[in-house]
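Good morning,

Attaching, inline, the backbone tokens for the sequence recovery test we're adding to the shared suite. The designed sequence is right after.
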């Protein structure tokens, strides 16, 4: 827009100068030819073709000196394309010298220099802006990763403490109660009185029941540290407007870190469905194969956001896939589908 305004200013004064010098001639032809040449130079990017056009203008200027009065218009493009070499055009002005033409040529060159500087500053500004956006994006990713790592570390600390408590219960209290039950069994054999034996049996049953409760509590501590199946079902239950189907076929004992990463993938998949799709059904499958685990998240939405390809959700899932030497594929075909493969460790 800036270039258009400057060229329009130069055209008006070139036209005025031409009519001032040749008031009796019909100058429309010369004006249109010069204008067409200038517009053609704006549209062409090939410098060789542009050089031929500039040479052509020199030739027609020698044949028709009226064209020399439109040199300021051509100079504007010439300096943008070839820089200081545009000054080689200036001697042509003296073939049909006009003080205003000289002034317009100098002004055109000056405006072009300023325009070129403005373009450089604008490009630098654009590069800085893009760099800031890129840095902001990476900073968001970094902060998100820190948040996830912090959450994971907290969960690992909780799991470690639960396991420690469970182990202590099993090793200390469990051992003591087991020993007491065995001693009561021995006392029942030694004792001769029926009433005493009955009391010992009652005490033995009480201790046995307590021992079973402790075992159950220890088992729950281990199991509740991260019940992946239940956690995923809880996530599905939080979607009242979407009909969910969850298929869980995993027999191996997964590590806590793998459970946490799988849960993160499924949480991102559900978030993606809620934010970017108008789906009414969502199917989540977690399957175990001999050498890898497969996660499939598929909805039936008919709306697809192209910007979602570069979103942080899919990027996080891709990072988890790379962590386990796996593969991530996603496509839109009668709904958005995420297919993730996580390789088992050796």
């Amino acid at each position: 827009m800036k270039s258009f305004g400057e060229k329009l200013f130069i055209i008006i004064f070139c036209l005025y100068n031409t009519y001032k010098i040749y008031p009796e001639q019909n100058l429309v032809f010369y004006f249109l030819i010069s204008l067409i040449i200038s517009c053609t130079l704006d549209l062409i990017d090939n410098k060789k073709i542009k050089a031929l056009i500039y040479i052509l203008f020199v030739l027609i200027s020698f044949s028709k000196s009226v064209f020399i009065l439109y040199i300021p218009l051509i100079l504007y493009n010439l300096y943008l394309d070839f820089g200081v070499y545009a000054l080689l055009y200036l001697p042509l002005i003296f073939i049909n010298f006009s003080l205003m033409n000289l002034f317009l040529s100098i002004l055109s060159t000056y405006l072009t220099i300023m325009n070129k500087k403005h373009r450089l500053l604008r490009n630098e500004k654009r590069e800085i802006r893009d760099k800031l956006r890129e840095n902001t994006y990476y900073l968001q990713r970094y902060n998100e990763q820190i948040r996830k790592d912090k959450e994971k570390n907290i969960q690992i600390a909780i799991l470690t403490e639960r396991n420690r408590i469970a182990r202590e219960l099993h090793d200390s209290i469990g051992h003591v109660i087991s020993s007491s039950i065995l001693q009561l069994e021995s006392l029942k054999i030694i004792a001769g009185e029926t009433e005493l034996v009955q009391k010992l049996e009652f005490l033995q049953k009480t201790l046995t029941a307590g021992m079973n409760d402790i075992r159950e509590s220890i088992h729950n501590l281990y199991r509740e540290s991260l019940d992946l199946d239940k956690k995923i079902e809880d996530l599905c239950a939080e979607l009242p407007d979407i009909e969910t189907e969850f298929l869980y076929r995993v027999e191996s004992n997964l590590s806590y870190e793998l459970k946490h990463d799988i849960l993160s993938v499924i949480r991102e998949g559900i978030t993606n469905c809620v934010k970017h799709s108008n789906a009414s059904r969502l199917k989540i499958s977690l399957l175990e194969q001999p050498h890898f685990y497969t996660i499939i998240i598929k909805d039936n939405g008919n709306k697809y956001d192209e910007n979602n390809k570069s979103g942080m959700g899919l990027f996080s899932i891709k990072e988890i896939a790379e962590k386990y030497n796996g593969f991530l594929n996603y496509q839109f075909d009668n709904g958005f589908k995420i297919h993730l493969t996580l390789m088992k460790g050796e």
